[in-house]
Amino acid sequence: MNESLKILLATPTKTGRTKVGLNLGQALAELGHQVSYFDYDARTWLQRLTPKALRGNGFSARQDEHVNRAALKMAQCLKPDVFLCVKGLQFSPTTIRRIGDGGTVTAGYWIDDPLD
Description:
Layout: E1 6-10, H1 20-30, E2 34-38, H2 45-49, H3 59-78, E3 82-86, H4 93-101, E4 105-109
Helix pairs in contact: 3-4
């Protein structure tokens, strides 16, 4: 391989429903790329502590806004060559566009999970 890429991989990092994102990152690293992970399933302390029954309207939307801000901030700090998102329904088109505006190639990979 001639050129190593800095890749920001947005995927859940815990084992479970979208573990293939971790496998993808490991394969890219084995090919010589520098892979950083953004876990979009990581919850804020408020969401972890608030029972679902007590979460009001807009609670999930605020969580998604938090995820979008954090991903954009990480992309701006790391300045990756590629932002690769596995599934990632939480990301808004505006966030993806802003990451791309920084010179990063953006791509999405949707997994056909047999459990879905």
